[in-house]
What we know:
With 52 residues, the chain is an alpha+beta fold. It has a domain at 25-52. It has one helix spanning 38-46, and strands at 9-13, 19-24, 28-31, 34-37. The strands form 2 sheets. A two-stranded antiparallel sheet has the order 1-2. Strands 3-4 form a two-stranded antiparallel ribbon. A hairpin with a 2-residue loop joins strand 3 and strand 4 (34-37).
Amino acid sequence: MDDWNHTRDIGQWEQCGYPYIKDRNADMIITGGYNVHCSEVEAEIQKIPGVA
């Protein structure tokens, strides 16, 4: 192998230079032509008062 481990995770680099895992590519829903990740839906639901 070429020293890469393909986990199908979606990651980003923070401004301070550290990587973090944002979501899993397999957890993506395609709806109305948009790619929606489960973590995005969960984050919006958490904004609703009374949801904990």
